[in-house]
UniProtKB/TrEMBL annotation, chain A:
Limits of the ABC transporter domain: 3-229
Classification of source organism: Bacteria, Pseudomonadati, Bacteroidota, Sphingobacteriia, Sphingobacteriales
GO molecular function annotation: ATP binding; ATP hydrolysis activity
SUPFAM superfamilies found in the cross-reference section: P-loop containing nucleoside triphosphate hydrolases
Any matching Pfam family: ABC_tran
InterPro entries, alphabetized: AAA+_ATPase, ABC_transporter-like_ATP-bd, ABC_transporter-like_CS, P-loop_NTPase
Name of the protein described by the UniProt record: ATP-binding cassette domain-containing protein
Recorded superkingdom: Bacteria
From TrEMBL, chain B:
Tagged with keyword Membrane: yes
Pfam families: ABC2_membrane_4 (PF12730)
Name of this chain's protein: ABC transporter permease
Stretches that traverse the bilayer: 20-40, 52-77, 110-135, 156-178, 241-259
Length: 298, 265
């Protein structure tokens, strides 16, 4: 395991924000650390970087205790926590050069990083004038500068446009192919599903689920959302045709999604039996619903 | 040690375009230039006075202004500016998650603030000597060339530097803990005014109050001596300077203990 925590807890005053968290992040994985805002993700990340001292529990990174091997461990980690920390009065390149000086990295590597995050043309511009997306990309370049074995990113796609999000996702996948590990937090289930190989879900500081993406997909199966002129008749018709119904409401019904062909079959069936279909689409569960399902399955 | 040197280099790189850095150059340049213009424009008044007198008149413009308000305020500003770079950019979290010990990061930052203060005082010394001699050349009636007090000037500015160390440590810690401008600056300013009042009123224990020490240092600089008044000696290590250094060392280490245990938000 690249990261292993046991019984990790943290309190701000009387408020316990992380409760006995046990993380297991395998080598070579993209570990999606999922949870709503305020769930304790950033606090956990700060403990992994030794910025916050855990009130209880232990942290092992690269199979070594973080407390006693801080510098050795931090040498192999690149991180981006919350908003990128950037000196606004320096240019993008100067920000990287400053970090390169501290990490003893060559200027060539700085230029490579600028190229990687597509900031070469804006390298001489003051970072204070960068857009949020550019700052986020510079933050990622800073995190990748020392070619770390473990990359810890806290909501890296925040503020990025769709193209930027895709770029970051592809970048992470590329990094993992080089044998590295990525620990990435997000509050968006759909985002994590698209890139993660492993997932940990946290809510109110407690780990609610941890496993592979396949394990999660078994719980978070999408649904087919159907709106018709008569939900009850539609539900009965589908049941008679051996189609499972997940939920029936006055104005809609939900059917577990199996395939797009199945969606077509249901649509045809309803129309051929005189039921008017207003809407039929595939729907992903939101985090709240997923939490309910996880609680039920536990 | 390597981490310390790398951090120190980075401090220079980060602040080389800020007022915090340029202030250390502009302040001595502006004040000594002002002193130069003042003496030059009133050269008739100072003409043919003894060399020692003109040197004292000239250098007291810098020493007087620094010894009263400017040095404490400038020290407060330096301490604020080296920490504010990180507060403003929200970079404490990245600084403390680098593979460099907290001791090196904290020590280098403090050392850099000390370096800025030292540079400022060194420039005061050099510019006073330089401009004094220049005045002597362009206005020969000013007898600058008849007397030499390079050593005394260096000693006085060194004494001032040491007397500001207590303020530096206290303000450095306050600026590190508080991200806003008003708290450390406001507190420092009030303390400075109090210090000036205590020192000007010759309060018996003013030397124990860090913010009164630069002024106390100026007051205690002349060694009491017998004999002709055609030369004087500087007493660098006086009671106020020792107290300033003791406070500086204690607060510096206390600050490190706080930084070591403190969570980085």
């Amino acid at each position: 395991m690249v990261i292993r925590t046991q019984g990790l807890s943290f309190s701000f005053g009387n408020q316990q924000v992380v409760k006995s968290l046990s993380l297991e992040v395998p080598a070579g994985s993209i570990y999606g650390f999922l949870g709503p805002n305020g769930a304790g993700k950033t606090t956990t990340i700060k403990m992994l970087l030794n910025l916050l001292q855990a009130s209880e529990g232990s942290i092992q990174i690269f199979e070594k205790d973080l407390q006693t091997n801080r510098i050795e461990i931090l040498k192999q980690i690149g991180s981006l926590i919350e908003q990128p920390a950037i000196y606004q009065h320096l240019t993008g390149k100067e920000n990287l050069m400053n970090r390169a000086m501290l990490l003893q990295v060559s200027e060539e590597r700085v230029n490579d990083m600028l190229n990687l995050v597509q900031l070469t043309s804006a390298a001489g511009k003051r970072a204070g004038q960068y857009s949020l997306g550019m700052k986020q990309r510079l933050g990622i370049a800073l995190a990748l500068l020392d070619d770390p074995k473990l990359l810890i990113l806290d909501e890296p796609t925040n503020g990025l446009d769709p193209n930027g999000i895709i770029e970051i996702r592809e970048l992470m996948m590329r990094i993992v192919k080089e044998g590295k590990t990525v620990f990435v937090s997000s509050h968006l289930l759909s985002e994590v599903e698209k890139m993660a190989t492993h997932v940990g879900i946290i809510n109110h500081g407690k780990m609610m689920f941890q496993g592979t993406i396949t394990d999660l997909q078994n719980i978070s199966q999408p649904h087919i959302y159907i709106e018709t002129d008569n939900s009850v008749d539609a539900a009965n018709l589908l049941k008679r045709n051996q189609i499972d119904i997940a939920e029936v409401e006055a104005n809609h019904l939900l059917v577990p999604f199996l395939s797009t062909q199945q969606m077509g079959t249901i649509n045809t069936l309803l129309v051929q039996n005189g039921i008017t279909v207003y809407t039929i689409n595939k729907q992903y569960k939101d985090l709240e619903k997923l939490f309910l399902d996880i609680t039920k399955s536990n | 040690m390597k981490g310390f040197l790398l951090s120190f280099g980075s401090e220079f790189y980060k602040t080389r375009k800020t007022l915090g850095f340029w202030g250390s150059i502009i302040l001595p340049l502006a004040i000594t230039l002002l002193a130069f213009v003042a003496i030059y424009s009133k050269s008739d008044h100072f003409a043919n006075k003894p060399g020692m007198m003109v040197w004292i008149q000239f250098s007291m413009i810098s020493l007087g202004s620094m010894g009263t308000l400017l040095l404490p305020i400038y020290t407060i500003f330096v301490a604020y500016s080296v920490n504010n770079v990180e507060h403003k950019a929200d970079t404490w979290k990245t600084l403390f998650s680098l593979p460099i010990s907290r001791w090196a990061v904290y020590g280098a930052k403090y050392a850099y603030a000390f370096f800025l203060l030292t540079m400022c005082m060194a420039l005061f010394t050099l510019l006073n000597i330089g401009f004094g001699n220049l005045l002597g050349v362009i206005k020969p009636e000013l007898k600058f060339s008849e007397y030499h007090m390079e050593l005394q000037l260096a000693q006085v500015f060194f004494k001032l530097l040491l007397s500001a160390m207590g303020i530096l440590s206290i303000q450095f810690l306050l600026s590190l803990l508080w991200s806003d401008f008003l708290k450390p600056m406001g507190l420092g300013f009030v303390a400075t005014v109090t210090g000036v009042i205590l020192a000007t009123n010759d309060w018996k224990y003013a030397y124990l109050f860090p913010y009164a020490q630069p002024m106390a240092a100026i007051k205690s600089m002349i060694k009491h001596q017998r004999g002709p008044a055609d030369h004087f000696e500087i007493n660098v290590f006086t009671q106020d300077v020792y107290v300033s250094l003791i406070i500086a060392v204690i607060v510096f280490f206390a600050g490190y203990v706080i930084v070591q245990k403190r969570s980085v938000k």
